[in-house]
Write the structure tokens for this entry.
Amino acid sequence: MILTRVALGIGLLFVVSLVIFWATELLPGDLATQLLGQSATPETVAALRAQLGLNDPAPLRYWNWLTGALTGDFGMSMGNGRPISDLIAARLGNTVFLALYAAALSVPISLILGILAALWRNSFFDRAANAGALTAISFPEFFVAYILVLWLAQTGLFPSMVRINPTTGLAERLYMTFLPALTLTLVVTAHMMRMTRAAIINLMASPYIEMARLKGMSPLRVVLRHALPNALAPIINVIALNLAYLITGVVVVEVVFVYPGLGQLMVDAVSNRDIAVVQAVALIFAAAYVALNLIADVLSTITNPRLMHRR
Amino acid sequence: MTNFNTTGQGFAPISRRGVLKGAAAVGAAGLILPYGATAARAQTRGGTFRIGIGHGSTTDSLDPGLWDQLYVQTFAAARHNYLIEVDSDGQLKPEIAESWSSDDASTWVFTIRQGVTFHSGKTLTPDDVVASINHHRGEATTSAVKSLLAPTTDVRADGNTVVVTLEAPNADLPYLMTDYHIPVMPGIDGKIDVTSTDGCGGYIVESFEHGVQSTLNRNPNYWKSDRAWFDRIELLSILDPAARLNALITGEVHLIDQIDPATIGMLESRGVANILSIPGTGHYVFPMDSRVAPYNDNNVRLALKYAIDRQAMVDVILGGHGAVANDNPIGPANRYFHAEMEAKTYDPDKARYYLQQAGLTSLDVTLSAADAAFSGAVDAASMFSETARAAGINLTVDRVPNDGYWDNVWLNPNGNTPFCASYWGGRAVEDHMFTTAYASGAAWNESFWENARFNELLVAARSEVSEDNRRAMYQEMQQLVSFEGSTIIPMYTNYVMGVSKAVSTPERLSSNWNFDGFRCVERWSMA
């Protein structure tokens, strides 16, 4: 069961790699013209193109790249000749750190808010939590980020930009990246919270919940012991989706807080036609999506063994 | 991405008056320019100088031939020295070359300073200089200054000198040697290592991450005693304008570039930083492909030149941080600037007159623009369209993507963008500017303009030794470009930077490039 899933995931990644390669081929111009910019003359472009190996046919370049990637070697950045694995390693670490930080803040908050909102359905608390979360998600990320900078950075509480390097300590790192993590938390909380609330409320109408109530259980115990375990499958899926978003979709937040993550690397590489980097990063993003969805599937199956058996 | 013209640029003295005029213009717009207000104090050692720069990407390179924007330029100025430096008055000043001379302007002898060491400890020799120059010469080079150094037939070390031989006399060679692409780097077997940060400048690289930041510490063995005041330099790439401004306001950085004119008032009111606005030679242009109709008729070109409101563009597009240009790529900061040329003002009647001369009653043209050409290019094109209408010219603005602008639009590669927007950083010397963008057949002659008299003068002026004759020749060339050329040049731009009050700047800043000629790292100090 799990093995089939993994095999399907790998097959999917292969298809994705083909699509990535095909899409990057469609971009106008190439790295040589892009690197030389306005100063490109036919001779210098030709010299640089030959040096970078851009004259090989597309299928050959694809094959070379794919076989390299399988052995963990993404090749050299065409832009500055450094190994892509070096370029990506530090930034992948930063991206994962920020994603985990934001997840550590947002997942407990949204679960607790969601459970409480379900518990006190239609109360003032429920409406306020919903309105607050929806307001936060409705603003564009950069706007939320600038508001936080105005309130929390210009008053001197937190730094307006993230200056970290591999030697920065954990406490310093948590302090430096608080504002981006908070921005992301505000952006992703609504989705998870509302799914938690909806999934629980959906179950509250079931006969077995009514039975539990009739037994005289406290409402909180009914929700935590009886409703939540059965509501976990959809919640886990939404959390996985949001985690994937935190890894792949935070480029705007990275730009505002000058955070050296993968998203900015990807945007840089696209505008510079550094195809090798674009492909590597896109593949990592695709792998993150596939892996997180795989984990979500496995976890929801564990929490709900009925999913193992086809009806 | 950013695209700047990638070869040397204008220095030439800017007069005190020029600076004050700039100051007055800025002041008139309700802004303050406390030029020199923070200066003229004894410089102190120490401190960490942090610079936030709106450029830089992961594809930046350590290869000097590929340098193209302010981040790599400033990074280079911190760790490298050049043969010759341009001082804040625009004069040439010995750096690694102690002195230079030539009898005939064809063979140049540079005497190399003794006792200078690289950060690695290696002693600098003339062979290193030869290797550094040769990196940009020859068939296989990918350097952006290949064409600039193409007329050099030989570069060799001779004792403690370097001898450069040219195929034709060029009195401006020492100016060309100040180009930021040609730092002195250590040579190994006649080649420089383009993956190394080793140099002989005031700061030693501790770490760097392209597109993110670089950290440098003061070089304890630096041969200049009155330079490199900071203990440590941190260069940060901050692409987002709001993030850059925030970083300056919150004190995260001391110096930023590219400030949106709209936010200057807000920054001033915070009282933590000053705005410095330095007139330079950079200019914004609208080249027309002179090979195709209707631009092959000079009357049409003149009609368009009179249909543009230059002053309004300076006010709106540059926020007053610039000056009106008269279709002249040579600016007031250049040595041979032609100040007495008849100024073209916005005059719809005159534009109509030239249209009639061309046998037309109305004219339909399309101007392709993207903000990749210069910040505000699309707005400038729209303004042009409005003012041209009064002259019977129907100018349509074709807004094109930033992405791929220099490949697909500039230089009319597909034949459908004969009229577009572009930008020049200006050039060190008149010859350099004209040879790069106006000489017949030049690779970057963006208007494909050919003028026999101009080309004749261009060659003659290079070897002319009489200062007065040279001046006359360059002024005639400016006249030709302005009134017969195929490039509309509405404005010169200033370098606008925000400087924290924690940092002290010299009384006069160089007009040769931004950031005090990239030398803020070694000329400035903590207040």
